[in-house]
Write a structure and sequence with these properties.
The chain has about 425 residues and is an alpha+beta fold. The protein is about 25% helix and about 30% strand.
Length: about 425
């Protein structure tokens, strides 16, 4: 009994010592709030526009075809060169047509001689009848007069026939009808070409240049409704409508032109209407023209006058089943979901916000995958970024917005 009590007492002392040596439980550090960049919307004037794709086309384009049949004799032009109206392009063997013309001239000479004879006979009979009455019968005078009239008619008819042969002889020289750039030889020397059929080459004008694009029916109705509601002033007196064009590899739309044609009906198959702009295509002093027919181009058509708008970087705008939204901060630095209506994206990467934002809202512009509605964050207040780091339209941050290098601490009240 004594040994058992002693053992139990010793075991109790060991357990008491072990319990007193246990360390204190670790303290949990407070959760750090994520640092998220936010910015005020940019306020500036913008112009609404719509973008299309199109193709360039020459203002004038001519298929060069012969107007007479014959064999190619000469081709005195360089392929791909610039030509002027009236420049000689092809020579068709002129000898058959020259022979026909010479024959027609001979016929005219022959008929002139016959007419002169008929006139001489008629004048002689008139003179005889004048010296001695009834020396020449009236029937003979009528025959003389008819012969003279017939000879006159033959002369005139033969002269008209000769004009046809003169034209054929002239058409053996194929000339350019317009100023422009010529294509290649489609046939070589010695080939037979057929009148009004054989394609010899093509010539296209180069300055100015057309750009055709198809405007969809919703955009057409949008523009017409805006005109009817007075939001777009209708141009009168032939005022030009500006349009802008960008080529492949170019930033933005650096080429300016004007709209000079819109079709009179909508294509029921595509639901679009054809529109055409005209753009200058000058030749630099030490270079070549930039535009050629058939190029793929981007078209920007402004609709309406400039107006003030709020803009945010495009990456700040999210999409929820087709509906656009942004995250904004409340006065407790909590993220709030805000539905917005968006407009066009600008060249500097900013997106127009037509409705849903105010100038003094703080918009989340980064770390969007880390934030959720009602989530508290530590805001890093910066100026609205743009593509390429350019200032947003040369604007300064809105009044009250801190500079990026010295972000204020604590919440900012709106």
């Amino acid at each position: 009994m004594f040994r058992s009590s002693l053992a139990l007492g010793f075991l109790g002392l060991v357990l008491a010592g072990a319990t007193g040596c246990q360390p204190n439980p670790p303290r949990v550090a407070p959760r750090e709030l994520p640092v998220i960049p936010v910015s005020h919307p940019v306020t500036r004037e913008v112009t609404d526009y719509v973008d299309f794709t199109g193709r360039t086309e020459a203002v004038q384009s001519v298929d060069i075809r012969p107007r007479v049949t014959g064999y190619l004799h000469r081709m005195p032009f360089q392929e791909g060169s610039m030509v002027k109206a009236g420049d000689l392009l092809f020579v068709i063997d002129p000898r058959p047509y020259q022979a026909q013309l010479d024959s027609a001239r001979g016929q005219v000479t022959l008929n002139l001689a016959q007419r002169n004879l008929a006139r001489t006979i008629y004048n002689r009979d008139l003179a005889l009848n004048a010296r001695l009455a009834s020396s020449v019968s009236q029937e003979q005078l009528d025959q003389d007069k008819a012969a003279l009239d017939e000879a006159n008619s033959r002369v005139e008819a033969q002269k008209q026939n000769m004009k046809v042969f003169e034209l054929n002889r002239e058409f053996t020289n194929v000339v350019s009808p317009i100023d422009g750039q010529i294509s290649r030889y489609y046939l070589t020397l010695g080939n037979l070409v057929n009148q009004d059929q054989t394609l010899l080459t093509t010539v296209v004008s180069v300055d100015p240049m057309y750009a055709y694009f198809d405007m969809d029916e919703p955009t057409l109705l949008l523009i017409r409704r805006a005109i009817n509601e007075g939001r777009i002033k209708r141009r009168r007196g032939g005022a030009a409508i500006p349009v802008y064009m960008g080529l492949q590899g170019e930033d933005g739309f650096p080429h300016q032109g004007t709209i000079n044609f819109a079709n009179n009906q909508v294509n029921p198959t595509t639901g679009s209407i054809a529109v055409r702009g005209v753009f200058p295509n000058p030749e630099p002093p030490e270079g070549i023209r930039l535009l050629s027919p058939g190029m793929f181009v981007r078209i920007r058509l402004p609709i309406g006058p400039p107006h003030s708008a709020l803009l945010v970087i495009d990456r700040a705008v999210g999409s929820d089943q087709g509906l656009k939204y942004v995250y904004v901060l409340d006065n407790q630095n909590k993220v709030q979901y805000r539905r917005v209506t968006t407009g066009a994206q600008q060249d500097d990467g900013l997106r127009v916000i037509d409705a849903g934002l105010k100038p003094d809202d703080w918009v989340v512009i980064g770390g969007l995958l880390q934030v959720r509605p009602q989530m508290q964050i530590q805001p890093e207040r910066v100026a609205m970024p743009t593509l390429g780091g350019r200032p947003p339209g040369g604007e300064t941050p809105p009044a009250g917005a801190p500079q990026p290098t010295s972000p204020p601490a604590g919440p900012t009240k709106r």
